[in-house]
Each structure stands twice: as C-alpha cells, then as structure tokens.
Amino acid sequence: ALSDPSADVAGWREVGEDVLRACGPQERLLEACLTLAWSRGKPPRCEPVDLAAIAGEALRAQGPSGHESVVALEPAWTSGDPDLLERLAVNLVSNAIRHNVVAGRIELTTRVESGHPVLSVANTGPIVPAAELRRLFQPFQRLDPNPRTASDGIGLGLAIVEAIAAAHGALVTARTRAGGGLEIDV
C-alpha cells in the first residue's frame, strides 16, 4: 500500500487489519513476559482468596473446548494476590486444554491437605517423557519446539505458574501420567 500511489481507503483498512493481526502474538508475548517478571518476588497484594472460586472461573472463561471436564472444587482458602493467582489458574487450565488429545479429559480440583490449600489440574494429553518434565517449567520451553500456530503457546505458561507459586510460598509438583498428559499440583 505504501508503494501504491492510488491506494484507497479499503486498501489502507486491509493493511491496518493485517498489522493488528500481526501485533496480537507480540502483545501476548509481552504480557506473558511482564507477568513472569512481576510474579518473581513477593506478591504486591495479599488478601484472602478461595482457590476454588478462582479455578472455577478459569475453567468457565477458557471453556472445556470439547473435552470432558471432571471438577471437584472444595473451598481452599489462601492469602495472596488475586490477580496473580487468577493468572496461575488460567495458565494451568489453558495448558490442560491446549495440550490435550481430541475429546480428552481435564480434571480440576481444589482441596486442603494437612492445612494447605491445593489446586490440581490434570489432562489426558500426549505422553510427556519424564526427562522432559522439568524443562517445561523453564521460560520459552515447550514439548513441541515447533508450534504450528500462535495459539500453540510460547512456552511461558508453566514458568509463570512456578514464579507465581514461589512468590506465594507455594510448591509446584508435576507428574506425567502413564496414558499421557500431566498432573500439576500447586
């Protein structure tokens, strides 16, 4: 359009729409990097939060996308930054959906174990080699290093989950599942 001296409004509109589409993935990357940076260290806010409410909303917002959902949300109160804890739950749920098999299963639970709140997310995704599990929590690491589309993710989701958990004094444990997929507890 810049080199076309007779470019019209429709041509410029098309260019503008192309630029907006191209900026989407960069915006998501910047947002993820900023969230990762902000979540390192002490949470900026600390207030009572029910992990069950946050997890339930994360699943509703993402939608199960044709996957079977098994949900058992018991009240699991903690103290922390509600925005960061929401991001933690959204990242876990969206990963469970995105990295699943067609018509797979998502399990979402909250509970209290030995006085500690626990959020657990599991799926029936592809088989994850146990040796690769720790690497998935490093920034920009993915099981499939060649994403086909921007919706496949950029490899920051689990790094953000771990940073948010650490900022709240929580531990993240991840286990591979024999038939495929992961189970992650925070």
Overall strand count: 7
Shape type: globular
- Helix-and-strand structural type: alpha+beta
What is the chain-wise order of helices and strands? Answer: HEHEEHEEHEE
Our Rg estimate from Cα atoms comes to: 19 Å
General description of the model:
It contains four helices and seven strands. The protein is of the alpha+beta class and about 190 residues long. Helix 2 crosses helix 3. The mean pLDDT is about 85.
Task: Kindly list the characteristics that best describe this protein.
two-stranded antiparallel sheet; five-stranded mixed sheet; globular; 186 residues; 4 helices; alpha+beta
How are the elements arranged and paired?
Elements (H helix, E strand, L loop, with lengths): L8 H31 L7 E4 H12 L5 E6 L3 E4 L1 H17 L6 E9 L2 E8 L33 H11 L5 E4 L5 E4 L1
Parallel strand pairs: 2-4
Antiparallel strand pairs: 1-3, 4-5, 5-7, 6-7
Helix pairs in contact: 1-4, 2-3, 3-4
Can you describe this structure in just a few lines?
The protein is of the alpha+beta class. Helices cover 38% and strands 21% of the residues. It has a five-stranded mixed β-sheet with strand order 2-4-5-7-6, with helices on one face. Strands 1-3 form a two-stranded antiparallel ribbon.
